[in-house]
Amino acid sequence: MAKALASSNRQQTMNNTPPRASASPSTLHPQPSTALMRRLERLELVTRKVFRGRMKGERRSSRKGQSVEFADFRNYTPGDDLRFIDWNLYARLDRLFLKLFLEEEDLHFYTLIDASGSMGFGQPSKLDYAKQLAAALGFIGLVRADRVKIETLGTAAQANPTFRGRQNAWRMFDYLDAIRPTETTSLATGIKNFCLRNSGRGVVVLITDLMDKQGYQAALRYLLSGRQDVYVIQTLSSEELQPELQGDLRLVDCEDADEAEITVSAPLLKRYQQTLNAFVDEAREFCTRRGMSYVLVDNQLPVETLVADYLRRRGLVR
Q1: What is the pTM of this model?
Q2: Is there a contact between 282 and 197 (Cβ–Cβ < 8 Å)?
Q3: What is the spatial distance between Cα 115 and Cα 267, in angstroms, rounded to a whole number?
Q4: Of 188, 283, 161, the residue nearest 232 (C-alpha)
Q5: HSE of 167, CA atoms in CB hemisphere, 13 A
Q6: C or N: which end of the chain has fewer Cβ atoms within 10 Å?
Q7: What is the bridge-based pairing of β-strands 162-164 and 147-152?
Q8: Shortest CA distance to 98 belongs to which of 63, 62, 65?
């Protein structure tokens, strides 16, 4: 039973009282506060991998290009652009050298949000927390002229706008606000469809509770196949991390209505905690061994702290 509690988000009912709704309406707008946006403006998204951007952006590239910031020299070869020859060096050394400059490029930043029924659990709900985090990270990308794309696991291809430029921040916030925890797509199917729709390389942040009865391993392997820079942010509610339950309960799965009757006792809660810890440790090891960054987040942790502290240490922002 502890395994079932850890692997599937459930509702509790007791003494024949009606079950709680599996997904309450969103009450928190994802838009960051004005004070937080001022702090986010000083940050930028970074990647541990080198990707070729499609448009000029505001980050340094390892490629040599045509910006105004000097990088190096190299010998002239026939066919090179004569405009970049350093004639002063030619006058001194009687040899032709080309000036190389640091090129700036943009970053394609994807946020993939799990909007299944289990994400509607908690106060605030895990989905509300995910939307606030996506809004904060997306705002950083828009300020830096990155291409920001936000999707949910079951979103149709035509409903996925790409946001670019700070002027589109309000559109992005409204798009996030409209997301509800009503999707029935499995993790594996949703991420597979996401990878098929988005072949471009970049940074992918997956925000999910990883609670899927079919498992999460196959889903995460799809992200690896795209050679993306992947961050997995497992978001759990404080009620899941430290449940305060007692007595005889009937648990109802909020996604498939599966039921189980249990008697909560200290040994059962201990087994639940052990199972949950094993589940989290397994997910962390799975991601780490495959080069993905993994972060476990309590929905009570302020988004500002998560971005400026935890994700900065993980290398996603600086």
Answers
A1: 0.78
A2: no
A3: 33
A4: 283
A5: 0
A6: C
A7: antiparallel
A8: 65
Q: Do 198 and 104 contact (CB within 8 A), yes or no?
A: no
> What residue ranges define each of the domains in the chain, with the CATH number in brackets?
2-9+22-52+107-314 (3.40.50.410), 60-105 (no CATH)
Beta pairing, strands 203-208 & 229-236: parallel
Does residue 133 contact residue 31 with C-beta atoms inside 8 Å? no
Q: Which residue type does 240 have? A: E
Can you give the pLDDT of all 318 residues of the chain as single tens digits? Answer: 434 444 444 444 333 333 333 334 445 789 999 999 999 999 999 887 655 444 444 444 444 444 445 556 677 777 677 777 888 888 888 888 777 654 445 678 999 999 999 999 999 999 999 999 999 999 999 998 889 999 998 876 556 789 999 999 999 999 999 999 999 889 999 999 998 888 777 899 999 999 998 999 999 999 988 778 999 999 999 999 999 888 888 888 888 888 888 888 899 999 999 999 999 999 999 999 999 999 999 999 999 999 999 999 999 998
Concatenate the DSSP letters of all residues of the chain into one string. Answer: -HHHHHHS-EEEE-TTPPPPPSSPPP-S--PPPHHHHHHHTT--B--SS----SS--SEEEEEEEEEEEEEEEEE--TTS-GGGB-HHHHHHHSS-EEEEEEEEE--EEEEEE--BGGGG-TTTTHHHHHHHHHHHHHHHHHHTT-EEEEEETT--GGG--EEESGGGHHHHHHHHHT--S-B---HHHHHHHHHHH--S-SEEEEEE----TT-SHHHHHHHHHTT-EEEEEEEE-HHHHS----EEEEEEETTT--EEEEEE-HHHHHHHHHHHHHHHHHHHHHHHHTT-EEEEEETTS-HHHIIIIIHHHHTSB-
